[in-house]
Amino acid sequence: MKKSFLLFPLAFALIFAYLFHRQQAGVNILIFNALLISLLIRTRRLSPGNRFHLIFLAGAGISSIMVAVYGEGVALAGNILSLMVLCAVAAYPAMVVPLNAMIALPSAMLTGPREWLRAITAEPGGKSGTGRVFRKGAMWLLPLIVFALFMLIYSAASPFFNKFTGNFLQGFSDLMQKIFRWISPGFFWLTIVGFALYLFYFFGTFNNIFRVFREEETDRLIRRRKPFSGGFNALKNEYRSGIILLILLNLALALMNVLDIRHVWLFFEWDGGYLKQFVHEGTWLLIVSILISIVIVVWLFRGNLNFYSKNRLLLVLSRIWLYQNIILAISVAVRNFWYIHYFNLAFKRIWVFAFLILVVFGIITVLLKLRHKKTLQYLLVQNSLMAYAVIIFTGLFNWDMVIARHNVKHAGKAFFHTDFMMHLDSSTLPVLRLDAETLIQIDSVNRINFPDHHYYTSMDYYSGHIGQRSRNFLQGYPKLQWQSLTVSDAITYRRLQ
């Protein structure tokens, strides 16, 4: 049993290093996820029967498959996020509020090595000779490691100390060079990382006192009475203040929505400018205003105002306010649509739509909170899971390819941003290789409709750059090792040949 505590982490670390040493993201991500998830389930650190465990296990599996298909991108970011949450959940299996993973993850990283040392030096039944050997080894090895670390620090900080210790720093450097003659430095450090990951995932623990968000047994609000505390008058004053605030805010937002519907939805006219203030600053300011609006309603109905018998007017005003914010979110989407119509697709314009989906979902959950008297925990759980779902869902698509196809197709109508387009992912190269006639047409549209086109890369340079990238890809792809292969790269290689 003691040997397994050492051999399993070592085997896991070597596999990790073999999969990722000098490799890019590809099928290696899928294999690593399959290994890790199977071990977590087999050791019962995670259970597919638990709804929250199943959500994040599925997210990790789906995102790892998409990395094997597309390579780096949103899918990789989603997979890294999934693996971080899985580590936190393994340390804190009873977690209900996913945001507590922000504390559970560092807790697992700090406690994992400690719990591993305890496990490897423990003596089952008090008579294990193996445990005694490991314990004595740890008793000598740990002080020596700490001693060597401080010797290195002092030797590097003081040439006098280094000379007095017989040039300890140079001796350590020579030792590492001898080791690295036999073992690649990159492979060595990746093995260390893999070993540490095993300890985090399979030995990490969590202390409930570090929870950021409380986790209640129910998501329904409970009325808390405080007699003889003057609470009723305070509640009435808070109610009146809320009425005044929401009346004023509803009037201001109604005016904003009417103006947006007229000037943005129905009668929008582009003046030939770059829509910078209209979309960049305007869009994010409106999104921030919507988030603040949600916070205001959540704050007003955080407690006993939910149970106040005369709160009907405040509820109606709050719902009107939230519905108006949904209209405002639609206005933001329309602004983004016009920006795409005249200036084509880009990553930030796609993320605006994704973020708006989360914002509207957040407003809907607040409306449900008001109707069913839900707690803050309900909002945290539902919205964090929705945000996770959106990240995993967006990883199902190769957005570089979506952008390339859309922008090439609409190049005769919208601005073709050469500087941006020629640095998209390699999978887009077959789409971005344009014939001379198309290049002339795009250049003509840019010159006529966009007077500042000369600030961007010329079509001649763009064409040469895409051609060179295509030749480099054709030369480099056959040299890729199997760990880095993706379905997308294989398709691109065939199309470029």
Task: Write up this protein.
The structure is a single chain. It is built from 20 helices and no strands. The relative contact order is 0.10. The model has no long low-confidence stretch (mean pLDDT 85). It has three domains: 2-210, no CATH class; 235-394, no CATH class; 399-496, no CATH class. It has helices at residues 2-20, 27-42, 51-70, 74-91, 101-121, 129-157, 159-164, 168-182, 185-203, 231-266, 276-300, 312-343, 347-372, 376-394, 399-409, 418-421, 429-432, 436-449, 459-476, 487-496. It is globular. With 497 residues, the protein is mainly alpha-helical.
* Tally of discrete structural domains: 3
Radius of gyration: 29 Å
The proportion of residues forming helix, as a percent range, comes to over 70%
Query: Largest sheet at a glance?
Result: none
β content, as a range? under 5%
Question: What gross morphology would you assign?
Answer: globular
In oligomeric terms, what are we looking at? Answer: single chain
The H-and-E topology, N to C, reads as HHHHHHHHHHHHHHHHHHHH
Category from helices, strands and their pairing: mainly alpha
DSSP helical segment count: 20
- Taking the alpha carbons of the first and last residues, their distance comes to 55 Å
Instruction: Report the mean per-residue pLDDT as an integer.
Output: 85
Report low-confidence residues grouped into runs of 5 or more. Answer: none
* Strand count: 0
